[in-house]
TrEMBL record:
<dbReference type="Pfam" id="PF18291">
    <property type="entry name" value="HU-HIG"/>
</dbReference>
<protein>
    <submittedName>
        <fullName>DNA-binding protein</fullName>
    </submittedName>
</protein>
<feature type="region of interest" description="Disordered">
    <location>
        <begin position="125"/>
        <end position="161"/>
    </location>
</feature>
<feature type="domain" description="HU">
    <location>
        <begin position="1"/>
        <end position="125"/>
    </location>
</feature>
<dbReference type="GO" id="GO:0003677">
    <property type="term" value="F:DNA binding"/>
</dbReference>
<dbReference type="InterPro" id="IPR005902">
    <property type="entry name" value="HU_DNA-bd_put"/>
</dbReference>
<dbReference type="InterPro" id="IPR010992">
    <property type="entry name" value="IHF-like_DNA-bd_dom_sf"/>
</dbReference>
<feature type="compositionally biased region" description="Low complexity">
    <location>
        <begin position="128"/>
        <end position="142"/>
    </location>
</feature>
<keyword id="KW-0238">DNA-binding</keyword>
<dbReference type="InterPro" id="IPR041607">
    <property type="entry name" value="HU-HIG"/>
</dbReference>
Length: 161
């Protein structure tokens, strides 16, 4: 399997000339729902499906509690969750207040197993009709994060983070 992308035309707000540019946009081919994910974890871990569901539900509750306190939560090799925010910039420090915060979000930094996967994942270009053309592999691909754009996928500005 490979990650798939399509080429999309974009106009970036930071470009004063409003020049149209082209970017690769990740294509999500399907979604694994919670129940199917619990079944899969149950098979890998040889734990009853109901127990997996209860543990994941409890993990979500614990994450919510700790993130709401402003704490970063490290989940071993899985990665780290931390609260974050997007803010409007101001010309003076005294102009920065709670009203300049546009959005509160959760930031996920993957652990080493996900980072290794991202370095080794193959990438393939796909067309609207479903035909595939390889664009290379060679690792070191920039991960993408769901955090904006029309489809929710934008390139990560700092893949080392």
């Amino acid at each position: 399997m490979a990650l798939k992308y399509v080429v999309k035309k974009r106009v970036f707000g930071f470009d004063k000339t409003k020049t149209e540019k082209y970017v690769a946009q990740n294509v999500i081919t399907n979604t694994v729902d919670f129940r199917d994910l619990c079944k899969e974890v149950s098979m890998y871990g040889m734990i009853p499906e109901g127990a997996v569901k209860h543990v994941i539900d409890a993990l979500i509750d614990a994450l919510n509690t700790n993130l709401n306190k402003g704490l970063s939560v490290q989940l071993g090799d899985f990665g780290c969750f931390r609260p974050g925010m997007n803010c409007k910039s101001q010309d003076a420090a005294e102009d920065v207040d709670a009203d300049t915060i546009q959005r509160v979000k959760i930031v996920f930094t993957p652990g080493y197993k996900f980072k290794e996967m991202l370095e080794k994942v193959s990438i393939k270009k796909t067309e609207g009709n479903g035909s595939n053309a390889s664009s290379g592999n060679n690792g070191g691909n920039n991960p993408e994060k769901p955090d904006g754009g029309d489809s929710g996928e934008t390139p990560d500005p700092d893949p080392a983070a």
